[in-house]
Here is the input.
Amino acid sequence: MSDRTPARGPRSWDWAGVLYNLMMTLAAPALLAWAVARLVRSKARGGGGGVPPPLGWLPPAVGEPHHASDPVIWVHAASVGEVTAASAVLRELRLRLPLAHIVLSTSTPTGQSSARQRDLGVDAIFQFPVDAPLIMERLLECIKPSVLVLVETEIWPNLLWLARRRGTRTAIINGRISDRAFPRNRTFRFVFRWALRNVDWIGAQSPLDAERFVLLGADPAAVTVGGNSKFDEVPVRLLPAEAARWRQEFGFAEGDEILLAGSTHPGEEEAILTIFDHLRFSHKHLQLIIAPRHPDRGDRVHQLVREHGYDVYRRSHVLQMREDGGEMGVPGAAAVRVVIIDTIGELGSIYGCADLVIVAGSLLHGLAGHNLLEPIAQGKMVLFGRYCADFRDISAVAVREGCGVQVQSVEELQEQCDRLLTAPEERALAAERGTRMLAKHAGASARYAQVIAEMAEPPAGADVAPSDAGPGPAEAFAPAGEVP
Here is the structure.
């Protein structure tokens, strides 16, 4: 997928770097206050003591000794979405480099939890710190990466500049520049140009993303279209017996229909509960599952459900009771029950017990969408709103392939739910189309892993220095087959 060209030397810390670090210095008091508040919240939630992660403290496993000839790869994935994008790539990479020392960093608590719950095959997981020169220099000295891999939009100027100066190869995989972020990024193009010129290879999700990387200052020769690795990271479809066990766990009757709203945000739960109120008039056996995007909002969602007069099954409470030694039996059949999934790592499987899925985070202005692929992999027709900037390509493919429906308003969402709940044949056809869609667009993870492996293992006799691994300028925006 890549041809090696002579290495470029490290770029200087020019005026863009000076301005960026001046802005970082001015923001230092606010960053410190945020770090302290984050530590206090962690203690309040039972997270224990410790040093605030933004200051760059590392677990011992990050710097554990390894054989000098083994490559060291540092992958950074900000939150849950980026961890999902990196997961299949990491597994493919481990197949190619079984002896490599691979470490993964994340920026958010949910990203950290998601990474720790997955079998990623990495040697250590740690919290990504503030992009300050002294902190980044210390991390690079401790980790000593052969290759630094940033996922999607994680463009950190000081880290990239210092990595390049040390001779570390750098790559961005699954790269994207969202519609929402692009105008803002262009305002600070001088900083992005400085950062992106220190990246040896950029694999973009789509031709549009590739073009935007170049417009922000990336070298066209370093940019190619690699596709979206999230098509490779989908859950195994539940067997009917497994879906039935979830329904039994939640106390649903055998003939109940289930509407599942995943990754909801404030304001969306109220709208979905109101839709559910109306749908109950024409669908007497309809039940609802709500999975808030941030599980710590479980209390608020619980309160909203009770205000609408419904019984509640709350997943975190049930698991905690069982962990404490109590036993909550299978709940009795209720006329109407709303299930709240306020846990991490279970939603991808629970999608399999639904009849119809709403992927939220897309219904209200200011949101940017969430991953549609998990419910599609479970054979579900998905509904989603108009605000999908972060999943522009996936949502367009889902609509084009006939396994997703995009609505323009809450009123249209209710109409489509009503229609599709009475159209089992259309939902079954969407399941078949979704399976074909996933197979059609798979393969990006293997492509990305191959490039990283080539970067980590330079040809015998080559100097260990950054290299240009991208295609020539004429190939930079060539679509990779049917990549969205």
Q: What stands out?
A: The chain is about 45% helix and 15% strand. Residues 28-44 form the longest helix (17 residues).
